[in-house]
Fold this sequence. Notes:
Elements: E1 3-7, H1 11-23, E2 27-31, H2 34-43, E3 50-54, H3 62-72, E4 77-83, H4 87-95, E5 100-104, H5 108-127, E6 136-139, E7 142-145, E8 150-153, E9 156-158, H6 162-172, E10 179-180, H7 181-188, H8 199-211, E11 221-224, E12 228-231
Parallel strand pairs: 1-2, 1-3, 3-4, 4-5
Antiparallel strand pairs: 6-7, 7-8, 8-9, 10-12, 11-12
Helix pairs in contact: 2-3
Amino acid sequence: MKxxxxxxxxxxxxxxxxxxxxxxxxxxxxxxxxxxxxxxxxNDMQGFQIALLDISMPGMDGFTLCKELRxxxxxxxxxxxxxxxxxxxxxxxxxxxxxxxITKPFSxxxxxxRVDSLYRRVEMQNKKVAPVQSDDITLGDFTLNLRRxxxxxxxxxxxxxQVEFQMVEYFFSNxxxxxxxxxxxxxxxxxxxxxxxxxxxxxxxxxxxxxEDNPSEPRHLMTVWGMGYKWNTN
Length: 234
């Protein structure tokens, strides 16, 4: 079942989201606060594929809730709702583990496009089975296991979100190759992604914090100026 947890303290906005998502077949659970959402998530027995979180809520805000949910699940798809002028909110949400964001006000078309795109990615990764002969890709100190969906550095497991895993898989499949931002966006978010290209840059920053000894002076995940990024094996 296609299950979404909607977290929004304004009832009218929450109803707008729920009605439009129900129309296309999503099973909706609503929460009016971060605290309520966390309680629902912790006691749910079926599991959610996506959480749709408003940032500005009294009590536990969307940032805190995003962090808590991400600690509980690396595979849950998380979309943050931000005001159009809150540029730093978008970046902060992505750095805390969100997969995407939608700026307010938004149309039903944009809402459905973003949710459908993320749902497809989550389901694709949950169902993906790697070929037996190529479970592991090892590059230097790193080993990526495609079946278990793990990344290990010098024997230490690195927790990755589903978006981060897809990015690493793409880099490891193309070592020392400069990958264009648009190519990364299309590969990870899909060719029908309804958003901005800079989501790639924010996720690269987040990924560097996990894989680099010194993220400000990366040795592995390198910037190729004017183009994009590459995974350096030298």
